[in-house]
User: Fold Penicillin-binding protein 1A from Sphingomonas arantia.
Amino acid sequence: MDETAESMHVRLRRGPGHMRALFARRWVRVLAVLALLAGVAVGGFWMVFARDLPSAERLLAYEPALPTNVRDINGQPVYAFMRERRVELSFDEFPKVLVGAFLSAEDKTFFDHGGIDYLAFGNGVFEYLTKMGSGERARGGSTITQQLAKILLVGDEYSPARKIREAILARRIEAALTKQQILELYLNQIFLGRNAYGVQSAARAYFDKDVGQLTLPEAAYLAVLPKAPSTLTPERHADRAMARRGYVLRQMEANGYITAAQRAEADAAPLGTVAKARPPKRPAGGYFLEDVRRELIAKYGEKSDRGPYSVYDGGLWVRTSLDPKVQKAAEDALRDGLMRYDAGRGWRGAIATIDASELGAGGAWRTGLVRANVGVGYDDWRAAVVLDKAGSAATIGFTDGSTGTLPAWGAAMPRRGIGGTAFRYMKAGDIIAVKRQGGDWVLRNIPEVSGAMVAEDPHTGRVLAMQGGFDERGNDFNRATQAMRQPGSSFKPFVYASALDAGMTPATMIMDAPFCVYQSARLGRKCFVNFGGARGAGLQTMRWGVEQSRNLMTVRAASQTGMNKIVATAKAMDIGTYPAVLAISLGAGDTTVAKLTNAYAMLANQGRSLKPTLIDLIQDRHGKTIFRADMRPCERCNMKDWDGKPMPRPRIRTKQAMDAMTAYQTVHILEGVVQRGTATTLRDLNRPLFGKTGTSTGPTNVWFVGGSQDLVAGVYMGFDKPRPMGGYAQGGTLAAPIFKQFAKVAMADMPVVPFKAPPGIRMVRIDRRSGRKVYGTWPTNDPLAPVIWEAFKPESEPRRSIRRSSLAARGRPKDPVAAEAEAATARRAQRAKDADFMERQGGIY
Assistant:
């Protein structure tokens, strides 16, 4: 059956679906638009107010800015580098009475809210609206969490935007931290006046005690300060502070922290604040600490933008090599030496001046005096400003605001270079140095001459003391490390050390006679002379030349050795880099007292290289060591108990800057400088000492560098702008006495030990006059004995000999110093001839 198939076309049409039907309704479209607007509003709100706020993770890791604490060689705190006075404590270290006082004063519902007290916040908003445009500032509305948020935001902008950001951050803080952690941060961060950040610093600033020692009324007073410390100061607003403290005490009673009896007793107590936070005693070693600060800044930076270990924010703990006893000895010895030189020269004039407009009754002079930052050195001297001068007395003022009287007789010293009394030239506004004498004050003079002193441990290179001038306050130029000066004869030991390396011995005979060299066609001949024009003494031993500091013997030895070797020695000992010219052998090349002292310490250390260090150890705020000066491993050093074996010591890894035997020979020769030479003033210290005096041309600088097996020190004295100090100025008469005064204190408790000779040194008896080996007699303790022990390298001792009978036949040899005294008349007669000779030869050095 045929059937005709017919095509069928089906057309499908989508009917109105659920979503389309839903959006067809008007109210749904309105809700969608509102939701979109809300999303945009939330996004905009976040972009404006919350985008750059700290995250919860950052809050958990937040660490407040803390000062860097510096300790001395004994581990005792000596100073802190800070811009904000802050001490961080844990929550458990805050006394309950203090916590109760702050909660009662600032946020009694702290443990109940989630970061915002909405009722108080609403009141704050209402007060802001009602006072808008009036110039008054709205108060209240902030919880402790919000106050902490304000501190973390860094800023106190008075605006609704800041308040919104504060509230957002407060909620984040509550979500990230416990209530105890929030209180800990708050009590460590809050500013309470007197540059005190945190309650521990405030307790010290207002009551000079730690938080754990605070009484109830004292804790209540600190709790009144967060709102406005400047309006509740005990000096100017004591009544207002007492009233506010009473309010806090009543709140503490109402909140159950104290009883009514405790409140009444505390309310009756006076504020009890100290009139001014006790100023910290000026630490010994201001120049030392300033160099430590500079080194830390170079390593870690000043602020936290340089990293987590910055000097003023990082909370570092720095262990230094500063020895307070040695430092005080250096300070006193140097100051006394400068004062001895300056004595009798008259008053130099005012140290600084204050503008006369600041001398009125308002007390602006006190600010000017503090700003001048004048250092007067001694602890019993004070800086003062002349407020008024009338008749026979002047009224003077001090930095603490007190005043005193300076009578005319107390300023009777002559005016330097002019004549007349200092009182006559004194005028209002002059800043002067004074010292108490009875009920009055007397004028003192800051010496114009200056200098520096450094003391070092020759075993390790640790700098134990550093004094870079009379006083670091107002003048932080550290002459110990920054003043480049000619060392004069104190450089000579390194000339002779080079000669010893080149084959000479301490007994080598060197001619002490006029020595001239041809420099060039332009410069002609150059002739050298001994200090003071002393005539040559003929052939003498090297030892004698060093002990008597003979220039002619030095340049002759330098010429024979070669200046290239000598300047190489100076470079290896880190004294300086110099040209290879003969004048360098007499100390014409500039160096610092710190460098030269370190070079002498290397001599005492048997020629091993030393790097001077001020810092032993640095730890971060958590106690992790981030720097050690000595990084050598030491096996068995950290054992819990002693194992009975020899004391463990780290291995010596320093290089030899000089041959050990050469270094010892040089030290042994320099012991003779103290026994018989230019530093005999030190002989009565009765301990093995070595050293060398120095006097540069002019003389413009005087030096002494030396010490014992365990302590080496160097000192120089001179004007900051070099000029002649006077013909009598010598290292032996000015610098060596400073070292002597220092050593009497610094070495008082040190064991008396000889200098240690390295392996290979041969000690041989010689006649110190001729340098010949001696048989049949022995050295004695007499420093002028004809026979001494001399140090020689193997196979270098003298081959010539002299017997006891020969010594007896000629008698005890006369000391060269005595021989020169007897020949004084002959020298005077010869001096004119010598002068003519030297003039013909083109001058002298």
